[in-house]
Write a structure and sequence with these properties.
The chain has about 300 residues and is an alpha/beta fold. The chain contains eleven helices and twelve strands. Helix 9 packs parallel to helix 10. The protein starts with a strand and ends with a helix.
Length: about 300
């Protein structure tokens, strides 16, 4: 029996990534001979970065930006993850043009964290961020409050911060989540803090609604197939979260970053194969993976 292959209709770029890539492609198409720099990878997917690089997009780090000779009149793209305020100040000081593609959901979160800090700081309260330490979005969020917030990645890290007094329970607390984190993990973090908070805690629901709905949709998709091929870049934070979700629902879940990483030994004749991916996985890559699986002749 041949394999039945289906691509998850909800997988693929989120709105913020679509917006950033579309603006990059438009600039490159309408500005022949001009370079476009992206401050950090515009998307955490190696295949898509290669495609855009062939069109003229150059990824640069902050250190690389400072080392550039004569950057005036060059153009720099701020990706959907957002940046701290000092990035904008530095860009202005060196005369580089900006295309700001910060996701509107992230912009709203940045504003909310600034406002929370302004409320809490006079009372000695604390802002807590549930997110990945060192992630670009989290660094941008920390920059809104001069680094005066506590970042926790998981429940274990939260308990450690509480035990060491890094998070105080006798002062007002407000907690926010990185926009792409797991809703169930965030609920667990918030529940634990709520049990311990003596001076009150305000929980902000800041996970992107598109990302949050993906968890329920992907759970159903993983359960409806015999085997899941999850496609995402190796550096995708959202990919790690969603792959782990699929694996918890369907043990026959395998991660690939490119179609040729697929192993024929994973499959059984007649398998219903589900192809899905992260919010940073381009649709064309999902289609390539599906075509590769269908063409294996199993």
């Amino acid at each position: 029996m041949a394999l039945e292959v289906e691509i998850d209709k909800y997988s693929g770029f989120c709105g913020g990534v679509i917006r950033a890539i579309s603006r990059a492609e438009r600039f490159l198409a309408t500005s022949p001979g001009c370079r476009l720099y992206s401050l950090g990878a515009i998307v955490h997917n190696e295949a898509e970065l290669k495609r855009l690089g062939e069109k003229g997009l150059v990824t640069v780090t902050k250190e690389g930006l400072r080392d550039m000779e004569g950057p005036r009149n060059e153009t720099l793209l701020i990706r959907a993850h957002g940046e701290p305020p000092e990035t904008y100040s530095y860009a202005e000081s060196i005369g580089i043009n900006l295309i700001d593609c910060t996701c509107p959901v992230v912009l709203k979160l940045q504003k909310s964290i600034r406002e929370a800090w302004e409320r809490l700081h006079p009372q000695g309260g604390q802002v807590i961020i549930f997110g990945k330490v060192g992630h670009a979005e989290v660094l941008g969020l920390l920059g809104q409050v001069g680094g005066d917030a506590v970042v926790v990645e998981d429940l274990g890290m939260l308990l450690e911060a509480l035990q060491e007094g890094e998070i105080r329970t006798d002062v007002p607390l407000e907690i926010f989540s990185q926009t792409t984190k797991s809703p169930s993990e965030y609920s667990g973090i918030c529940d634990e803090l709520s049990r311990r908070a003596q001076a009150g805690i305000k929980v902000h629901r800041t996970i992107c609604s598109q990302v949050a709905s993906r968890h329920e949709q992907l759970s159903e998709f993983a359960a409806a197939h015999d085997i899941i091929i999850f496609v995402s870049g190796v550096s995708s934070s959202n990919g790690k979260v969603l792959y782990d979700l699929c694996k918890s629902i369907n043990p026959r879940t395998f991660h690939i970053s490119a179609p040729d990483e697929t192993n024929p030994s994973w499959f059984r004749p007649g398998d219903r194969v589900g192809i899905c991916g992260a919010t940073s996985t381009p649709r064309w890559l999902l289609e390539d993976a599906a075509g590769h699986v269908a063409g294996m002749g199993i």
